[in-house]
Write a structure and sequence with these properties.
mainly alpha; DUF2752; transmembrane helix; transmembrane
Length: 99
Amino acid sequence: MKLLLLQLEDYMLPCVNKAVFGFDCMGCGMQRAISLMIRGEFLAAFYMYPAIYPLIGLFTIIGINIFKKIKYYNKIITILAIITTSTIVVSFTIKTLIN
């Protein structure tokens, strides 16, 4: 498992937005949050990228719906998309204002 994490961290993509413009994009921290979750550091993953859990919920529902149709799927996806987008925007705004 440690070998997988070391290899994963060696191949993380750099943020082009940060390299070009000098500030984080709305997706900065997602790869590191996934890496932290794999290690079992769930709270640290949330602090790194707060939208990681709504994103997981969104993709889980989408994945489940592929195999078994979910009643009220469109409403669930809409609500989760709004929650996810709001979390991304709010956390990005707070991170930008603090730094």
